[in-house]
Sequence to fold (120 residues):
Amino acid sequence: MALFCHRTRKAPTLDPDLQEVSQDRGTESEVRLSGQITIDSSPNLRVLLLQRIESPSCELLTVDLGDIAYLDTSGIAVFIEILKAARSQGKNFRLTGLRERPRYLLETTRLLHLFDKGAP
Fold:
């Protein structure tokens, strides 16, 4: 019998241009982002995602970018750091809901495959 803890929380705004809603389901944690990921919002996003992946109950962290219209290279740097932290702890990290610009940026930098379903 599996026990699932279902908790949803809306955190304070990370930045005027970036908002998040987090949800935990057992060992899975999802962070839904909306707005823009820029050099200004990346530092707070980094802190938030590191806290999530370092949580003892989190085995899979999924970041839904479906409502992200803009992503710059500072956001990619944050995602690479979170991926590295996840792998060092034996956890999985993935990105979902990629739209035009964010997908294009990850494809042209040849990094998209790293975030697909927590691939090793």
About this structure: The helical segments are 42-54, 73-88, 100-108.
